[in-house]
Amino acid sequence: MKVHILNGDCLQSTLQAENALVVREMLVEGPLEADSFESFFRQRAFYLKETYSITHEEYQQKTVTEFEKIQQIPDHSEVFLWFDYDLFCFVNLLFVVQLLRQNKTLKLFIVRPLREQRFRIWRGFSEHSPADLKRAFSKKRRIGKTDLTYLHHLWKRLAKTNRLTDPPFLPFLTKHLTDYTAWQKAPFVQPRWGLTEGQAARITF
User: Fold this and answer.
1) Was domain 2-144 assigned CATH 3.40.1360?
2) Are 112 and 106 in contact (CB under 8 A)?
3) Domain ranges of the chain
4) Which of 25, 89, 168, 202 is the most exposed place for a label (fewest CB within 10 A)?
5) CB-CB contact of 197 with 187 (8 Å)
6) Per DSSP, what are the bridge partners of residue 5?
7) pTM of this prediction?
């Protein structure tokens, strides 16, 4: 089975993928530390209600049910993670990986927006036509066991539950660096997973 996980609803209107699941969260802010997924979702629901007046019912219906579907993806499926480069998407990606890594039989792939001069990189997939999305899909990358390990540790550090001393975050980030072209005016290289040097510092302090 092939499953597509999208960060937000907008992409699906262009992609029109079968078996698409949508992440409707903003994990870049609010509580992340919890002893279980059930506790995690309760904390998130409380935070979003207090901060943005999102009801518990709406959060359960639109967000938690999609996460539950992600946890129920059949064994041996191919899962394609469509996530933009920005920090908002990156943190959501980290959490989705935590859900998926429980099933060792899944084959995981990351699909990124095309890195071409005609696209503004922080607009992500929003400027992509159906043909562009097809090309982006053809450039998908497999997420390997080592990647999963580092992403897991990075999530734990972000959620402040990782007690490891000196975890290997910087080697991980360095491993995935790729150059931005001059038109991006990047002062430094960018990690493949979507963090700028400044954003990495905010997470790995």
Assistant:
1) yes
2) no
3) 2-144
4) 202
5) yes
6) 21, 81
7) 0.78
